[in-house]
Amino acid sequence: MARYWYGMSLADWTLLLTTVGETPNVVQASGGAPITFWNAETGGTQYIDLLDADGAPTTSVLSSTGGNRAIGTIPPLRGPDNIKWMWASAGGGPRMLMAGRVDAVDRNGDQMLGSLLLADGSPAASQAYAVSRAGDTMVGPLSVPTPTAPSHAATKQYVDSLGGGGGGVASVNGETGVVVLDAADVGAAPTAHTHTTSQVSGLDTALAGKAPTAHDHSGKVNGYRWTGSAYVASTNAAVYVGPVDPATLGSVAEGSVWIPVGA
């Protein structure tokens, strides 16, 4: 916090009302008067957290008795932190309001002895605390408000509130209905599980049209075998196996197949 300076202005004097010769009510500068400082014109509380011109703690100051400063001038001192006004009393007399002031800092090469505070009372950041626009790294978290536009930065809490995807809650159709995934599940390895054939669209119908694993082709493929002089039906067939084309022997049903083999 800032300590304001007091004293050594044109109005900061201790004066004595006296009679000089036959002239009454003559005002004269008076040195050596103890000056105390208060938070009210009457009553109130005395400020005792003061610093003299050299920075040493003190509870009051004495007006000058001469030398480097004119007699009666109130020497410079600094008041308590952030106190901008104080009521001064010389030797217990009536109190007068004194305004504090802060040293100005030169814009070129000067240095401040205290902290620079912003309008809201927070300390201003130096270049050491600034982050460069390119390639710099922050050592602490960046806090941002809730985004209201597409170009705004978003907090982790805001993204988590959207289910981790940034566009709403993700869901899939599962065995017992809709399974809702929270942010912790997004991108995680799938959990082992099973499905029935009825959960796969069209699978039961396709399987019903397949032949069973154990089966034969009896009554399914009709064939004729060659006996050496004629074809003899092995069942009720339309497949001919032998050295002679069955078409040369008589009528053959349309779609019949002849597999020529040696006699």
Task: Report what the structure shows.
The structure is a single chain. The chain has 263 residues and is mostly beta strands. Among the domains are: 97 residues, Sandwich (Immunoglobulin-like), CATH 2.60.40; 38 residues, no CATH class. It contains two helices and 17 strands. The strands form five sheets. Strands 4, 5, 8, 10 and 11 form a five-stranded antiparallel sheet that branches. The protein starts with a strand and ends with a strand.
List the helices and strands and how they pair.
Blueprint: E1 3-6, E2 15-20, E3 23-29, E4 34-38, E5 46-47, E6 50-52, E7 57-58, E8 61-62, E9 77-81, E10 85-90, E11 95-99, H1 156-161, E12 170-174, E13 177-181, H2 203-208, E14 223-226, E15 231-233, E16 239-242, E17 257-260
Parallel strand pairs: 14-16, 16-17
Antiparallel strand pairs: 1-9, 2-3, 4-5, 4-8, 4-10, 6-7, 6-9, 10-11, 12-13, 14-15
Task: Please summarize what this structure is.
The protein has 263 residues and is mostly beta strands.
List keywords for this structure.
263 residues, mainly beta, Immunoglobulin-like, five-stranded antiparallel beta sheet, four-stranded antiparallel beta sheet, 2 helices, rod-shaped
